[in-house]
Amino acid sequence: MKIGFLGTGTMGAPMANNLRKSGHTVTVWNRTASKAEPLVKKGAKTAPSPREAAAGQDLVFLCLSDEKAVESVLEGPDGALSGLGKGTVLVDVSTAGVRSARAVEERVRARGASFVAAPLLGSRTAAEKAQLIIVAGGPAEAREKARPALRALSARVIELDSAPQAALMKLVVNSVGGAMMVAYAEGLALGASGGLDVAKVVETLQASPFHSPLFLMKGEQILARDWAARFAVSLAEKDQRLAQEAAADQGARMPVNAAVRALFADAIGAGHGANDMAAVADVYFGWAGVKK
């Protein structure tokens, strides 16, 4: 297929490359053009604007940081919406929330195109290895058209009947994941403040019935004080905000989510916004007076 790919950052670059390696013709665009150059050197085409990246494509992927970025890339005379043709499927793999999914779907339909929200579960490493889990929601025909491309990026595609459902599912997952990360950091700080060896706390939790691949990975990062972003604190905080917005629209209460968002905001305030969400442990250790 002919695929336009808009957003070649941490997740987008390896995804666009895997689509290229799978035999699709990929045209890329990125706001900072230099970030797309490595893909062009590998054989991808480049476009000077979102509109031109979207024009004449079978599929158009968006891989952007939040709902504001999605809006800025879609709208305007050079926006991707103006380049969509009838029969094109716009696939948004961004985590932009339920409100965004509904709004984008309406405008895409008005262009005679189709919309699939396909948020990602997984890290850059999973993206590089084409081992992402993708939750894809949209009309059956659109999902069918997008399915070969989505399978080229993933270990599993979970399909839902609508784009807003897919967007909501991602928020459910990240709401739980954020709570797990904060509770883990809090537990490690509790142990450290009482004189326990943090490495032993990590080992014991991983041997317990509450073990988790997340705890294993983040434990290693925390022990090494390795805050290089796999999933940045700023994005984690954004996802908790989007979950709160969805809850408000649906009449649900999320007091844990509100606390988790506040703790990620504390980490941002401490200078960890661009660092991995594991850095919330650094904030907890500081509160507990644990030597770094």
What does this structure look like?
The chain is of the alpha/beta class. It has two domains: 2-161, Rossmann fold, CATH 3.40.50; 168-288, Orthogonal Bundle (N-(1-d-carboxylethyl)-l-norvaline Dehydrogenase, domain 2). It contains 13 helices and nine strands. It has helices spanning 12-21, 37-41, 50-54, 67-74, 98-110, 124-128, 140-151, 163-193, 198-207, 213-224, 233-250, 255-272, 280-288, and strands at 2-6, 25-29, 45-46, 59-62, 89-92, 114-117, 120-121, 132-137, 154-160. Strands 3-2-1-4-5-6 form a six-stranded parallel sheet, with helices on both faces. The chain has a three-stranded mixed sheet with strand order 7-8-9. Helix 8 packs across helix 12, helix 8 packs parallel to helix 13 and helix 11 runs antiparallel to helix 12. The chain starts with a strand and ends with a helix.
Topology diagram in text:
Blueprint: E1 2-6, H1 12-21, E2 25-29, H2 37-41, E3 45-46, H3 50-54, E4 59-62, H4 67-74, E5 89-92, H5 98-110, E6 114-117, E7 120-121, H6 124-128, E8 132-137, H7 140-151, E9 154-160, H8 163-193, H9 198-207, H10 213-224, H11 233-250, H12 255-272, H13 280-288
Parallel strand pairs: 1-2, 1-4, 2-3, 4-5, 5-6, 8-9
Antiparallel strand pairs: 7-8
Helix pairs in contact: 5-8, 8-11, 8-12, 8-13, 9-10, 11-12
